[in-house]
Amino acid sequence: MNPQLFEKVDQYITHLVASEDIVLQETIQSLDDASMPQISVTPTQGKFLQLMLIMCKAKRVLELGTLGAYSTIWMTRAIPSDGKVITVEFDPHHAHIASQNIAKAGLSDQIDLRVGKAMDVLHELITHGEEAFDFIFIDADKPPYTEYFELALQLSHPGTVIICDNVIREGKILDENTDDERVKGVQRFNQMLANNPKVTATIIQTVGAKEYDGMALAIVK
Ligand code: SAH
Ligand code: DHB
Ligand code: MG
């Protein structure tokens, strides 16, 4: 492992293909200003999400875990103007900052920010017969990832792409004796994913500006 090299190369790639405009820079700054954690996706990951959305021609997107809407802004910019993103945030303070950032980005019309627990909103969407999403990004609390994914499947159609952040946790998922509930949550999730006949899935490792981690990628059959 050479984290410094990974970070430098990530900066190099960011500069080449994932540079942030003022809106994205100010969104990152807003997290510090509001004493929120710096756990947004990186610019290269934001660009990666955009590529995924364009590849599956996404118009309807669901995100669990908004924080300051950094990933939300990247994603919304990759869908057509008649597309829509529903993003779910449990913490009202985070949601408040996110909605300011969304307004500054000029995306309030396309983004429906739901303040509530991901589990409750997923059940609500299913109960209300919400039209299936083309793309789902799961990035909220880690212990219930398995349940989030199962519910997300009920809001999917064949071809829906589901991406889940933070499923490697610096390799801690290899530790079978961990008592970290977040690590246990993603271990359980990864196992479920591997045995889930409804999707074709893989996991990629992510290195760069942030901690060594990984994303699970799944497409619904
Ligand atoms: N997707 C964001 C980062 C999300 S960080 C980005 O890349 O920019 C995870 C967020 O999930 C935090 O803001 C946290 O408050 C929120 N969260 C935690 N538990 C949640 C829950 N049960 N339901 C909804 N959101 C939750
Ligand atoms: C954490 C959460 C995330 O979604 C992330 O990308 C990194 C860290 C966390 O809760 O520590
Ligand atoms: Mg994350």
Features:
binds S-adenosyl-L-homocysteine, binds magnesium ion, 221 residues, Rossmann fold, alpha/beta, binds 3,4-dihydroxybenzoic acid
Q: Could you characterize what this model shows?
A:
It is a single chain. The protein is an alpha/beta fold and 221 residues long. It has a single domain (3-220), classed as Vaccinia Virus protein VP39 (Rossmann fold, 3-Layer(aba) Sandwich), CATH 3.40.50. Helices cover 42% and strands 22% of the residues. The chain has 8 helices and 7 strands, in the order H-H-H-E-H-E-H-E-H-E-H-E-H-E-E. The radius of gyration is 17 Å and the shape is globular. It starts with a helix and ends with a strand. The site of 3,4-dihydroxybenzoic acid has 4 residues, from loops.
Tell me about the largest β-sheet: 7 strands, mixed
Distance between the termini: 36 Å
Proportion of residues in extended strands: 15-25%
Please indicate the count of domains.
1
Work out the helicity level: 40-55%
Instruction: Report the average pLDDT across residues.
Output: 98
SSE-based structural type: alpha/beta
